[in-house]
Amino acid sequence: MVYEEINITIRQAEKIVLDQFKVEGKATRLPGELDFNFKIKTASGDRFILKISRPDEEENYLDFQQQLLQHIADKNPEITAPKVILDIDNNSISSIVDAYGKVRKVRLLTWISGRIWSQVNPQSDALRFSLGQQCGLLSSALQTFHHPLDTRAFDWDVSQAAWTLAYVHVFSTKEQLIVHYFQDLFSQQQHLFKSLRQQVVHNDANDNNVIVSTDLVAPTVVAAIDYGDAIRTAVINDVAICCAYAIMGHEDPLAAALPIIKGYHSEFPLEEKELEVLYTAIAMRLVISVTKSAINKQKEPDNTYLLISEKPAWSILKKWMTIAPDFAVCHFRNTCGFTAHPLETEFEKWASNQQVSVADLFPSLDKRSVFPLDLGMESTLVGQLSEFDNLKKFQFNLDQKQDENPLKVLAGGYLETRPFYTTDAYKQHSNYGTAYRTCHLGTDFWVPDGTAVHSLFDGEVVMSIIQTEAKSYGGLVVLKHENNSLTFYTIFGHLSEKSTTQLAVGTKVNKGDEIGYVGHIKENGGWCPHLHFQLSLDLFNFKDDFPGVAVPSQFDIWKSICPNPNALFKLDDLHAVKETSNEDMIHYRKQHLGKSLSLQYKVPLKMVRGEGAYLIDQQGQKYLDTVNNVAHVGHEHPTVVKAGQQQMGLLNTNSRYLHENINQLAKEIISTMPAELNVVHFVNSGSEANELAIRMAKANTGAIDFIASEVGYHGNANACIEISSYKFDGKGGHGAPEHTHIFPLPDAFRGKYRGDTTSDLYAKEVQLLIDEVHQKTRKVAAVILEPIISCGGQIPLPKGFLKKVYAKIRKAGGLCISDEVQVGCGRLGTDFWGFQMHDVVPDIVTIGKPLGNGHPLAAVVCTQEVADKFANGMEYFNTFGGNPVSCAIGTAVLQTIKNENLQEKALEVGNYLKASLLELAVKFPIIADVRGEGLFLGFELLDNKANPCPEKADYLVNRMKDFKVLMSTDGPDYNVIKIKPPMVFSKENAMEVLKYLSVILAEDFMMNNND
Length: 1011
Ligand SMILES: Cc1ncc(COP(=O)(O)O)c(C=O)c1O
Description:
alpha+beta, about 35% helix, flat
């Protein structure tokens, strides 16, 4: 058939709808595989879909669709589906004769408003769940629908997919391999497919047939449209079709399918045996799709719709092939509330009658009890990376424990989340960035190398190999055991090389037979000697390996596949690890911790470790930290940790005794300052530093009036709050106190004065305040300012402003305080201290956050004159300030900045990140400004009318967290994203941030930029 001859033009469509239905409207063309579809919009805003069939279309088939729609409407009026409009003669199916004399059937249906699935970004788990729900609802309503045409030969019916076998020749050799793989599975499962529930189902929830609500943050599926493919078939085929399209474009298609299945199951419960074929059914729908595309490409090369889903379908088929079918079934079962592994319960029953001892495993040790070893994320025995990577140290710790418990075997680790799986082999791509396999699936027995290991049951060797990669199993032996209908496996990892060469695959072993020896570090994958003992009910497709650790998101599935070895040993001390849930922790906090303590993120995180630029949560997942400028030289920097630990072991006391550490740190700090600033007072927090600076200014000038910036924050102590507009002008505040004078935020981008030449204007505002103080016959004590105003939203001071302000304040007899609590210690890249950027020398500098790298350490540095005037006889005593431990830590921090060139790195990486953000701003105009220096950056979100977008900033930060990047918002309108990571933040880290920013900025909610 020549396409031109069957095509319907827009003008023809408008005439048809007017003639047949008396509906006058404008038509726009819509995609369609067979029908010619048009959207019709009337002047009054009513919308319809006009469907014109190909010539010679059977009326019966159209009647089937019309009746089906009516059935849905009658069965469940709550379901949104298109409604049938009758023509001028009251027919639900109208007909016309086209320009070539052919009869064409015409139908008009109500339009369902919303967005087409394919245009929705992101297609979240929640959205896919609601897709499943909608399709489940439809299937539920269609259970009782019957029509003579519901059973027919149909290429798109998964149950009938065998036709594709005849067309494999249309594919390349590589493609044929893929297609054959699934076709083989399909034919093997024919008996299963035939035994499944059959009914009429929608059968075509592809991404152009699903309508989604217009809510851009939490959209849901409104309806499935286009019922032309409905057919009587296995229900599971309908689920498969929903999945086949909605998992396209996802890194991990299996994970993406689960919410759909869950949603379907919630409305229309699926049966266990249906889930057994779901993996194949999904693949076969895709096989049909790629086969159709290939055939149709040859037939109608101009029809682009036919090709729409070809590419992503191939990509999914390739990924799908890498997933073991039975493993997928475990996921499907778990999602639907069945035991993930079908044999879990049977195994449990069998195991409850077994009794084996640790001595059966290691007869030579003759030990029957165990000492439970905690090697989890929060284990201090494991320590930090530099410690657990040092196997001598790790072994020393183990030996100590063993010495304390000589009669027991050190053991444990089933389902324990552990920090030490650090090689790339433990990284996995997920739909939410990198996922780390951290959850241990077996029990480890920490026994000496050379210890003989014996089989617990009769069995057969099915794997016996040596793995040579770092942090692998080394020697690995897997035994298969069969007991009536139950087959299971015992997995022995970290054996000696000799064990595996001695024991060939196929060897039968009896209970009690020696099967090998615990391996030495050099042959066991590079671990302290131990036996990894794991049970499994399946080996899936694994031939020379089997996971011993899993990603936490698959915890429930693996728990079922790999039962607890203690089901055999039955030892109280070998219990699986139990953790307090985050919900319980939140509940306790709410009850018993300060009520105004806040938690970050809508779903709060529990962090248990830090490592460089990363924070690591309780499940061992790594989050890139762009927020924490406190962990200045990197989270838990080994040098800093060691300095603190070592001094802690010697002495910690106050500064009334002589100690080298306090002098050393003072020297380190002074060496970074201009010569004038050479007296140091040590305190414990930025607040305390500013509190002391305020006292010094008062003591020096005899005045009590302070000048500070709008939206400035200087700490939580009384006097600090009184100079912090961020607090007293914010929620719960009562405005500026009598002696505080606030000048407008010197924001050249969106402040009171805008542009490059605003420094005079803002400086004049400061002068006005000075004059005001003088008019009240009082004097100015000091001005306090950050070199980049952080809580104000990373506001750089206009060029020349600080110099002018300092001159005016000094003229008025006041002091100048530079609050370097946020920006100090090299973060800005060009200069070590922020004031140096402005070519001024303050009278007092306050230093906080970065100095202790997380340890409470802060300092006030001032001139001799200021210090002398402050020392008026009243002793300044500070119990903790300047203690030897804090000073050891501070010194280590400052030396690390130098030794690792962190200031220079901050400049280099910061410049790269800033330039890249500016490029992003061109692509995404919602980024209205990019600012800051070094690794103290910010970007501001404004809509196209220049209004701030705090909800978008909040959305962005929460979505970045989904991809394991931590960011924060600030500024008076909370529309500025701040970037102030640990200074070890690398260019690769910056690239990761940029990668996910560009993903999220392109999402519907972010792109809808006209608030
Ligand atoms: C600029 C500035 N000054 C002072 C402080 C107070 O420091 P701390 O929280 O250590 O008391 C902060 C804290 O965020 C700050 O940002």
